[in-house]
Design goal:
Helix content of chain A: 25-40%
Low-confidence stretches of chain B: none
Radius of gyration of chain B: 22 Å
Distance between the termini of chain A: 26 Å
Largest interface: A-B, 48 and 43 residues
Number of helices of chain A: 11
Mean pLDDT of chain A: 88
Low-confidence stretches of chain A: none
Structural class of chain B: alpha/beta
CATH class of the largest domain in chain B: Alpha Beta
Number of domains of chain A: 2
Radius of gyration of chain A: 21 Å
CATH architecture of the largest domain in chain A: 3-Layer(aba) Sandwich
Number of strands of chain A: 12
Strand content of chain B: 15-25%
CATH architecture of the largest domain in chain B: 3-Layer(aba) Sandwich
CATH class of the largest domain in chain A: Alpha Beta
Strand order of the largest sheet of chain A: 6-7-8-3-9-10-12-11
Largest sheet of chain A: 8 strands, mixed
Helix content of chain B: 25-40%
Shape of chain B: globular
Shape of chain A: globular
Mean pLDDT of chain B: 87
Order of helices and strands of chain A: EEEHEEHEHHHHHEHEHEEHHEE
Number of domains of chain B: 2
CATH topology of the largest domain in chain A: Rossmann fold
Oligomer: heterodimer
């Protein structure tokens, strides 16, 4: 894919804490094209959010990007001066957070915040900026946007607040949006509304969307591509449908197997034994090794990313390839 | 099941939270103002029976009153009106030792194990305190008893000197379960007990719930917003919307053919693990504020089939087929 919006190559983001080095993101590579949705799935502590923050250049000390490249239209964002990064962040790459109150200032009206966002990147007069803000609110499905512009964040419900946060992210028609668990705090019916809006917007505006979540079921219906992360590494990457139907990596297989709707009712769920390793000073080798039924001596060295089937990448010495259709 | 006395029966249970007027507002009223107390009908005339050994899933979105109902059942809140029967006895008539007995038999497991476990107590104190106070075990046998409880929930007793913060989320939830089990309950109210856990850990805890049910012959009221979890675990599912029960049916039938338009919408919108990309067709509108719920059927402003009667009249929960109940006017027309 040469028309990739974003290409991440061997990204490494480590946190240098007193207790030891936390390799939150360790040798992660993926790319995303225009009009595509990529799901970045993992359990808590797997490094999925830190990957998103790394792309945005928002990793704070003691964290640091120690290796790899983040190519945005061919331009490497790693080590870019802050002044340059500010021209891109918010304007060409936008981010949506889990808690919209993280994006919104509780003591400013919505219009103030939206106009400020526009004027931070573009020289436009107040009235035009207000017009654009109103259009953006309408676009994400907020009823009577004109009146809602002069409301404060606390006057919105959770779902509406998240829509406002999305509208702010869309103000500059970014080429890439990173959405970090944007629907996790919302109810099912409200979540469906947001997913519907995002699906529509990605198609209309031809932008790339990285959807970071712990919920495989959400991205299964939404995304084109899927990256599954475990302990800082992408263990499996490929088209969503293929991964869900026929996972290659034992962790992905376990994860999909433990979703209740995949199991016969009332029967014990297939479970992955044990728990995720503490990320501090991980031993070398495959981090999933202690929980994996297929692990053997070979797994004590780190498995490389291999293309096991066309478009299907996995980091495993013993992938599930035998049950291929 | 009809012959046996249900373990828990709720008759017209309501729970209202009232915010009384403050002094300033009362003075305004004296001067001719028309301010009124703010009343939230968190639970509105709910009837429910739970048979012994049954797992009932209680599903609804935030603010629908499912947690409040669970707390009423567990005896944490007192119902504002209506009565709660435990094994046929009206709980409000019990006093002293008999009341305490019922309280012990119904235990609750909370969503966030960090805020429901005392961070300053060691695990052995958390699990051992209640059985000791209530005289379930003698002091000399307490240590062994705690070990047994921890083993039951899949924790190694060597960790019993530790504090809650030294455990992972899944292990903390197991401590909460051990604490509930330590007083030998018959009935567990699980309020979003797996919602805070990662998928692979959630599967482990759900398996534990199923194992304990078999081991101790427990009855569960399993409160969750996650339909996948409820479908897997429950024998019967009850759907709530803004304080009222809108549908109640055996799990299989409910998921195959939901009757109430709200249930239909809810089932349609649950993200499922499918390999096909899907188009989301959401129901319109927001969940109304329980402070000021819509008239008639609470769901009518969002319902695609709403007609004039839905605005005016509250639909009763009627039996539409054996064991299936639904509160919708559409069932009368047919």
């Amino acid at each position: 894919m040469s028309n990739a919006v974003l290409k991440v190559e061997n990204l490494q983001t480590h946190f240098f804490t007193k207790a030891g080095v936390v390799k939150s993101v360790d040798d992660v590579s993926f790319e995303i094209g225009r009009g595509k949705i990529m799901g970045l799935v993992g359990e808590s502590g797997s490094g999925k959010s830190v990957s998103g923050f790394s792309i945005m250049g928002l990793v704070d000390p003691p964290g640091r990007i120690v290796g790899g490249r983040i190519l945005f239209h061919g331009q490497d964002l790693v080590g870019l001066p802050e002044a340059e990064m500010r021209k891109i962040r918010g304007r060409r790459i936008a981010m949506i957070f889990q808690d919209p109150m993280m994006t919104l200032n509780p003591v400013l009206r919505i219009d103030t915040q939206m106009i400020e966002t526009i004027q931070a990147h573009e020289k436009v007069d107040h009235e035009t900026a207000r017009q654009r803000s109103r259009d953006a609110l309408g676009q994400v499905g907020i009823p009577s946007p004109e009146e809602r512009l002069s409301a404060y964040p606390h006057q919105f419900s959770g779902g509406m607040r998240q829509r406002v946060a999305i509208a702010i992210a869309l103000l500059h028609k970014p080429e890439l949006i990173i959405a970090d668990e944007p629907t996790t705090a919302l109810d099912v019916t409200i979540q469906a509304q947001i997913l519907y809006e995002m699906q529509k917007l990605v198609a209309e505006q031809n932008m790339g969307l990285i959807w970071v979540t712990h919920d495989l079921s959400v991205v299964a219906g939404l995304a084109d591509e899927l990256c599954v992360m475990y302990a800082g590494r992408i263990v499996e990457r490929g088209p969503v449908g293929q991964i869900v139907d026929d996972p290659i990596h034992p962790y992905t297989k376990g994860l999909i197997g433990s979703v209740p709707s995949r199991n016969p009712r009332g029967q014990p769920l297939t479970q992955i034994p044990g728990m995720a390793p503490t990320p501090i000073d991980l031993p070398p080798g495959c981090p999933f090794r202690p929980r994996c039924a297929r692990a053997d001596a070979a797994c004590e060295t780190t498995p490389p990313v291999e293309e096991h089937r066309p478009g299907r990448f996995a980091r495993c010495f013993h992938p599930h390839l035998e049950d291929a259709a | 099941m009809t012959a046996a006395t249900p373990i828990v029966e709720m008759k017209d249970v309501s729970k209202r939270f009232v915010r009384r007027l403050d002094l300033a507002s009362r003075i305004v009223n004296r001067l001719g103002g028309t301010l009124r107390d703010e009343v939230v009908h968190a639970v509105d005339t709910v009837n429910m029976t739970i048979a012994e050994g049954e797992v009932v899933g209680l599903v609804g979105e935030s603010g629908c009153g499912k947690s409040t109902l669970g707390r009423v059942v567990a005896g944490i809140h007192e119902a504002s009106s209506g009565s709660l029967h435990y094994k046929g006895v009206d709980v409000s008539t019990l006093t002293g030792a008999a009341a305490r007995e019922v309280q012990l038999k119904v235990q609750m497991i909370f969503q966030d194990p960090m805020s429901s476990l005392n961070p300053r107590l060691r695990v052995e104190q958390i699990v051992g305190e209640a059985p000791q106070v209530h005289g379930i075990v003698a002091r000399g046998e307490l240590s062994d008893y705690v070990d047994e409880m921890l083993l039951r929930v899949g924790l190694d007793p060597i960790y019993k000197k530790r504090y809650p913060h030294q455990f992972s989320g899944g292990q903390r939830q197991r401590i909460g379960i051990a604490r509930a089990l330590s007083v030998k309950p018959d009935f567990l109210v699980c309020d979003e007990a797996v919602a805070a856990l990662d998928v692979s850990i959630q599967a482990q805890v759900l398996n534990l719930f199923m194992k304990l049910r078999a081991d101790f012959n427990l009855t569960y009221l399993f409160i969750s917003h996650d339909l996948g979890v409820v479908e897997h675990l429950s024998d019967r599912v009850v759907i709530m919307y803004l304080g009222r029960v809108v549908e109640s049916a055996p799990t299989g039938e409910l998921f195959e053919a939901p009757n109430h338009p709200y249930t239909q919408a809810l089932l349609a919108e649950v993200p499922r693990l499918e390999s096909q990309r899907r188009v989301f067709v959401p129901i319109k509108g927001e969940i109304p504020s329980p402070l000021n719920p819509p008239s008639g059927c609470h769901f009518h402003p969002r319902c695609p089939h709403a007609h004039a009667r839905c605005k005016a009249e509250v639909p009763a929960l009627k039996e539409i087929a054996p064991g299936r109940f639904s509160a919708c006017h559409l069932n009368d027309a047919a």
